[in-house]
């Protein structure tokens, strides 16, 4: 294995000089000497010891990223935004998929401590709450940013989920739909709680009664949306529209309606959240609340970058959403 001593010998300089060049320290090194060291590194294929370098510089240039479902295209869009900015800033991402499991979350929190990551991004208020209960922030002084609403004292990037849901319901009401069921995500999610609040507020503001039995919780998957839609279709009177908390569940709901011989939107309208690529390819096209997933991720990483260099950042950053109207309403 090639060592730093081999590089120094090839370049004809001291080990200290090689270290100064590789670590880009402020100690002056002539351009000629720097070039000789870099050429020796390239010729020998030398790879510095990351662990030793991190101990010396007190940084690892790594960012921990915890998300609840790596298979969900909503999260992959956010990850792309985070990774692009991280790459520009010279950071590497350590991705941890919790699969919505508290046990996995606690395991990954330990891993991130052991890896000595420079900062952490939690994708979802639920993960942040688990970290808070684990006393993660009392044990480690790690700069942290959360994507989503949470109760902790660290910066977050959010959308106004309550208002987005209210506007979605208002869209259905203006089109004449009065019996609006709701397929919600897990009740522990702060996103779900906010969207339910917006759904309820829109109904009440328009003189309609909020009926808890018209809300069915599922797991953000197409199969969960299918099952929840089947359950809601048994209600009397039958819903004439469905507000669905993400597009994947909405796809499942569309399948459930088709299996019953119901025509969308004549018999039942459907509206989702996220605007994943699949939303424009189902039949009919899915009306949905478009969330700026890439910008959520990019903004979160920029905030974390600023925290890492000691710059002040806002406590809450709220990004706008759009309603994309397609054939399902």
TrEMBL record:
Keywords (alphabetical) are: DNA-binding, Transcription, Transcription regulation
Q: Which GO terms describe its molecular function?
A: DNA-binding transcription factor activity; transcription cis-regulatory region binding
User: Which superkingdom heads the taxonomic lineage of this protein's source?
Assistant: Bacteria
InterPro entries from the xrefs?
A: HTH_LacI, LacI/GalR-like_sensor, Lambda_DNA-bd_dom_sf, Peripla_BP_I
User: What CDD domains does the record point to?
Assistant: HTH_LacI, PBP1_LacI_sugar_binding-like
Identify the residues that the record assigns to the HTH lacI-type domain, covering every copy. Answer: 2-57
- The keyword Transferase belongs to this UniProt entry's keyword annotation: no
Output this protein's name.
Transcriptional regulator, LacI family
The species is Thermanaeromonas toyohensis ToBE
Specify the taxonomic lineage. Answer: Bacteria, Bacillati, Bacillota, Clostridia, Neomoorellales
């Amino acid at each position: 294995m090639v060592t730093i001593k081999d590089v120094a010998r090839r370049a004809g300089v001291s080990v200290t000089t090689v270290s100064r060049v590789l670590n880009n320290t402020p100690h002056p090194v002539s351009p000629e000497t720097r070039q000789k060291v870099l050429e020796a590194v390239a010729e020998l294929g030398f790879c510095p010891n990351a662990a030793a370098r991190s101990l010396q510089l007190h940084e690892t240039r790594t960012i921990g990223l915890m998300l609840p479902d790596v298979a969900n295209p909503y999260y992959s869009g956010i990850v792309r935004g985070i990774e692009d900015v991280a790459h520009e800033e010279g950071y590497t991402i350590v991705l941890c998929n919790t699969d919505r499991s508290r046990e996995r979350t606690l395991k990954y929190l330990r891993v991130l401590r052991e890896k000595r990551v420079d900062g952490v991004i939690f994708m979802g208020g639920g993960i942040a709450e688990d970290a808070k209960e684990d006393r993660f922030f009392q044990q480690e002084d790690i700069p942290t940013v959360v994507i989503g609403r949470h109760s902790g004292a660290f910066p977050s990037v959010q959308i106004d989920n309550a208002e987005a849901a209210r506007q979605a319901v208002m869209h259905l009401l203006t089109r004449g739909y009065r019996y609006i069921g709701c397929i919600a995500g897990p009740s522990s999610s702060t996103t779900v709680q906010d969207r339910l609040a917006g759904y309820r507020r829109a109904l009440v503001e328009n003189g309609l009664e909020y009926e808890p039995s018209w809300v069915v919780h599922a797991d953000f998957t197409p199969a969960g949306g299918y099952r929840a839609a089947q359950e809601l279709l048994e209600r009397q009177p039958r819903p004439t529209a469905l507000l669905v908390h993400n597009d994947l569940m909405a796809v499942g709901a569309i399948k459930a309606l088709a299996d019953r011989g119901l025509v969308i939107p004549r018999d039942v309208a459907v509206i989702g959240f996220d605007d994943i690529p699949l939303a424009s390819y189902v039949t009919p096209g899915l009306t949905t609340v478009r969330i700026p997933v890439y910008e959520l991720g990019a903004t979160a990483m920029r905030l974390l970058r600023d925290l890492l260099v000691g710059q002040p950042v806002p406590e809450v950053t709220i990004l706008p959403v759009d309603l994309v109207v397609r054939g399902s309403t």
